[in-house]
Amino acid sequence: MTAIWNATGVTPAATNRLPVDVSSSGGASRVTMQQLADLGVLVGESHNALGTISSGTNDIDLSLGGFVSATIGGALTFTFSNPPASPNGCEWVLVLTNGGSAVVTWPGSVTWVGGTAPTLQASGIDVLRFYTVDGGTSWIGELAFDESGFLSPSDIASGTITPRADDIDLSGGTDGDVLTVQADGSLALETPAGGGASVHADLTGRDANDSHPMSAITGLVAALAGKETSGAVATHNSDTSAHGQTATGRALVTAVSTAAARTAIGLGNVDNTSDANKPISTATQTALDAKQSTSEKGSANGYASLDSGGKIPQAQLPAIAITEYLGEVANQTAMLALSGQKGDWCIRSDTGAVWIITGTDPTLLGSWTQISYPASPVTSVAGRTGDVT
Fold first, then answer.
1. Residue 21 has pLDDT above 80, yes or no
2. Residue 163 near residue 155 (C-beta atoms within 8 A)
């Protein structure tokens, strides 16, 4: 085991010696674990104060102490040297004043928490921490604190930390400012974005869990007057929106279903009925009822149809007699060549008789009938026959 102090070496000052337990026989002494735990507080860590540095490459020699401070006066580069050998871990602190006032170049072996080097304050104090477990081959860096005014250069030099005063200066406040708690625990007046209602309340003896009556906050009751509960529907006359001006609009925005929404705007009968089943208006139905169905065409009590020639078929015509004189023909052959229909007639000169169509086919002799005349009751005149003169 490595000795903490060798009696043959230089005797350290009394303030730097560790108290030990000595056995009654004067044997070997040992340091207690508690004494080792208190060592950092009793002795402290060496402070490597670099002062103001403004150019070039500035090496931070960790053998000179793990608490390093510096003030940045110009663009410069940092390097780190003499960390404990691997695999021992190392953690040290760098307190920078005005670190953002100039370009600071860090060693390429530093990997920053969050992926990028932090933005330092141009006027103020930043506290950074660095870690390694491989003898300085690689470092992890992080920004620990960046609150300006939390520590001052004189605090660092003297080893004392003076808290910021808790006094609240309300002299510069204006109506609408709000009292906020800052990151360092102090209180300050701020104007919220977009303004706000003024707040005047006695906070003496109160904490964050206290409740304050609305009457204690000036202007709050007036500011809430005329406001609506979130999600409520506007109904007052000053509302210029459609849903606030009309009963229909209010009914529409409060509808709980699509059916209710349709009813609100007078379309309660509108739905997704198929085209085949959609209803028609009363007027349209009345007009359709006055029309005849196509099923009544050519039927009794219906209406007549037309054949391919544009004429009413004979079967749909009533039984009527329409006769036509077809003229005088010389003989039977000429008579059968006539075109006519039942009831038409002609005179045959060969017989001196009238013939009438009584059948359906005038080309057949059976469809013709000769009209007979009764015999004359006068057979002779004064014993004469023939043409009597």
1. no
2. no
Distance CA 52, CA 58 (A): 11
Instruction: Tell how far CA 327 is from the center of its chain.
Output: 95
When pLDDT is cut at 50, 70 and 90, the band that residue 224 belongs to is confident
How far is residue 350 from each of residues 196, 220, 301, 353, 373, measured CA to CA in Å?
Answer: 130, 131, 49, 8, 16
**Rounded Cα–Cα distance for residues 121 and 333 (Å):** 135
Distance CA(68)–CA(96), nearest Å, equals 9
Phi, psi of 263 (to 5 degrees): -65, -35
Instruction: Give mean pLDDT, residues 299-307.
Output: 85
Structure tokens at 9: 């070496």
CA distance 169 to 88: 50
Distance between CA 190 and CA 187 in Å, rounded? 10
| pLDDT tens figures, 42-76 | 777 889 999 999 999 999 999 999 999 999 999 99
Distances (CA, A) of 41 to 32, 49, 130, 143: 15, 19, 21, 24
| DSSP 8-state class, residue 382 | T
Secondary-structure percent of the chain, ordered helix, strand, coil, rounded to 5:
20, 20, 60
At 220, the amino acid letter reads L
Decide if pLDDT at 162 tops 60.
Answer: no
